[in-house]
Amino acid sequence: MMRKYALPFFVGMMALSPLTSEATPAGGDTAVRKAPASPGRQVVTGPALALKDTVPVLFGVQHGNNLLQSYGIVRTDELLNVPVTSLENVLYGKLAGLFLYQVALAPGEDAASASLRGSTPLIVVDGVPRLLTSIDPEQVASVSVLRDALATAMYGHRGANGVILVTTRKGFNGKKKISFTAQTAVQQMLKTPQFLGAYDYARLYNEALANDGRLPVYSQADLDAWKNGTDPYGHPDVSWYDEVLKDQAAMQRYNLNISGGNRISRYFVDLDYLNQQGYFVTDPKNTYETNNFYKRFNFRSNVDVDLTKTTLMNLGVAGRIRNGNQPGARTADIYSNILNTPNNAYPVLNYDGMLAGNNDYQNNIYGQVTRSGYRPSYNRHLLVDLTLRQRLDAILPGLYMQGFASFNSYYNEELNRSKSFAVYQVKMNPGVDTVSSKIGTDGQQTNSSAVNNISRQAYTEFRLGYDSTFGKHRVQVTGLFFRDSYTPMKLLPVINSSVSARLAYDFAGKYLFEYTMAYAHNNMYAPANRWAYYPAAGIGWNVAKEDWFRAALPSVGTLKLRASYGLTGNSMDAGYYRYIQYFTSPTTYSFGNPPSAYNAIQQDTLANPAASPEKTAMLNLGVDVMALNDRLEFSAEVFRYRNMDILMRRGENASGVIGQTLPMQNIGETTYKGFELTAGYRDQVGALAWSLRGNVSFFQTRVEEMQEVTRRYEWNRRTGQPLSMPFGYEAIGFYQSPDDVKNSPLVEGYSPVPGDIKYKDLNNDGIINQYDERAIGSDKPLVFYGLQAALQWKGLDFSMLWQGAANRRWYLNGANAWEFLNTSMNGGPGQAQEMHLGRWTPATAASATYPRLTVNGNVNNHRSSTFWMKDASYLRLKTVELGYTLPARWVSHVKLQSVRAFASGYNLLTFTPLEWHDPEALAGGYPNQRVINFGLNIQL
Q1: pTM of the shown model
Q2: CB neighbours (10 Å) of residue 587?
Q3: Residue 669: which region, alpha, beta or left (left: phi > 0; alpha: psi -120 to 50)?
Q4: Buried b (16+ CB within 10 A) or exposed e, 425-450
Q5: Which of 201, 455, 895, 931 reaches 20 to 30 Å from 783, CA-CA?
């Protein structure tokens, strides 16, 4: 299978750096580089590209000015000004090559999905591949993206998709620091669907029935009752968003961290509490919580102890307790029902206060929210990291060895306390007895639980290294072995291991060379295919170090040209012992005449003993510039990746020939290419300090080989197109009259009428069929960008981040796009939205923006076509923060170091050509969020 979440092309315009940055000295806590300003958030005076800093890389650290790897980094204070619940959401727009997009949005599930140069990157936290959900931004020293083969090849089978490298904060030798932050926020829903009121819905539904040649179901009296609102029980008009969802939801977060130490030991301890509420209304009669919420308790302790003058021990312990809740009917199902239930379906309550409903709609949404019980969930994550590092200077100065062991455990349990409820259909007959029909039952509360995740991870590593300088020569050598064993539930463990090495050399900081390699192993492949070799090399030249260049341009401190090339691997699609043939549970076959049933076992998907890891050849070229006393920074990179041996199934429907699903085979090949630019400038004039930083990324893919079936026409071919390119018909308007239909090509399997979508006959054979399908997505590079600005004047500080994407196309379908389509558990017709008012009618033929309305879907109008491909580009004011730090002379009297109050916002403004949808919540369901946040930070 091809790379996950590959996106057509990326650009990212970058960020004005927040007013503080923290360097990460080896063996110590982050240290703020201070400008002459008041305490609190400090202006960045050093280079944002980290070219002057020691920066973390895989299995070690390197000096940024001599770094050849494709690299980007953000540090602690750039992560703290965003009122979000997950670390991923803090990174929007801040790192070139990293595109983030929301898939899930509910509390506890709203972490953005990440794509690094088109692939889902490996997450490495403190040297171990693991999830980010257990980390609070306050605990993080830096987040880096490693993008090329030189940076990732040492991870062997898991290096092809790039790495997000997270390092947590440590203690320092100095006076104890205590920092406490309290935040409270208001969440608001962004761009919710605009559903039609009952009157408009009914008349459009009658119109759709007429278009289908059917009689109307609503009389003029019905329409008048809805229009005038004279019969709220017999002719309800219910806005379910208003009835079951609150306008806003609360969120609170509290963090306490303590750090310090002495020459012998250093420590960093962090405690964090988060409470994020959902939007559901509650019933005060309930003795239990039915609203959806997410509560998280995080703990982290990092302790460094010098056991001897040459022996250092690091002990890291972290844990997370996550408690969630949702109504018994489940959050996702409730939002689906809101999306699918028209305003005229039934009232919230009948005249007697009983839940309303009918045979078509037996799940009253208000009942689902408040009377369906509840479903709590519990999640536990514990990790322990232990490192022993021994300097061996007595043998050879600069020589060391290091052992590292880590254990992670994950546990997730969901409780079911749900219950059923009855609804009542009432028919009001004036002057006659009222008829009430009960539908469903009022059931007892369920009491069950299910453990859906018990997994363990054991990671071990042994490293031998050497780092020394001889005059103008510096040599770094690292050799290591690691083994990562992950055991999901009751399955056998997935084991990745590797023998890896790195050699880095520079001469006078001018001429740079680096070589990395991995001989990697994965136990999911057949024994003969488990091992593979992945080498990478890079060279660089810092022209600014040359005497002749310094004489000509002394203001340029760095002009580094670099290039790297290497081979990396991808075992994400290895599967679970896919090389072994499996057989499914017994099934029944009939034989003989007369036939008799016999029990048998059935062969599962065919095994492939020859499957091997996917491989990627990576070429990366870059230039880094720093000038004007490091106030100006610039970095540009161009890359081209060739992905080979991609696991995929051969052809289309070929399995029908043999009656079995074909195996995954190493037959695919794709290319990824792009360009990234990062630039920034910072300065200080008197008490005013400011900075500006931006990044932009361009990214494009192409399918080179996929063993495609033979296509009759070139425009039908998937090979040669961008990865995941959608195919469909080219819409050329609507049929306007019977003559237009008569004079147009025939549509295979359908008889169009005026108002239907009209498609282009690409091969001019007079028939619209599969031979007229073409690529309907964009073949332009996807561009994503970020631009961040920051100001500080005396105690005031201000920062903002703009983030967006261009050349982004999205295929709209389903209940969030099509009229009267019901995809939920309800049985009646689905919703209609304001966009459907622009439908085609004979009177609106010239101005219609939507095809004629139909009921129960339309095979012509709802098929894949350019009509439903929408421009989902956007520009968003992602974050804004305004803070004020009290003067030091005010707070010193109460023994405080600093007190800072701040207000921040998230997703405040959005500009997009999408008229009816948020560009990150295009499937309907749980909406995107705007967050207004207020906080206070106190440091002792």
Answers
A1: 0.91
A2: 10
A3: beta
A4: bbeeeeeeeeeeeebbeeeeeeeeee
A5: 931
